[in-house]
Amino acid sequence: YQAEYGKQWYQRRVRDEHSLIKAAFSKFDEDNNGLITYDELEKVFSEIGGFASKDDLRKIIESVDEDNDGCIDFKEFLALSMKLQSSATEKSLQKLFSGMDADGDRFLTREELSEGMTKFLGHIPSDEQLDSA
Questions:
Q1: CA distances from 26 to 35, 72, 101, 133 (A)
Q2: Which terminus of the chain has a smaller tally of CB atoms within 10 A, N or C?
Q3: Which pLDDT tens digit goes with each residue over 55-81?
Q4: pTM for the whole thing?
């Protein structure tokens, strides 16, 4: 029973993460053409606090642009998400957290988390997602 429950939990988690990544990709891909351009990447980064320089943004694209078209498709975005997740710095996480921490008390309420996910990811989280956070 525990093994089956664990497998189901893992599958739900992967599905939820995939949904969040798809929502984030859609937020970046403003013209919905399936590609994130430099300008689209720059716009979203500036909206969430501008913690990446122009050179950093170019390096981000170059680091995942497998087909060398100067844009990021969903597969490349997935790789970028994994890369950013594994190499996220404490400073950038603090900026994101601060942007979500509306009252500045260094704690995220359920409402702040929900509003932050909506604002920064363009995704309205479900009650289940908020409960598991």
A1: 9, 12, 24, 22
A2: N
A3: 888 898 998 899 999 999 999 998 877
A4: 0.55
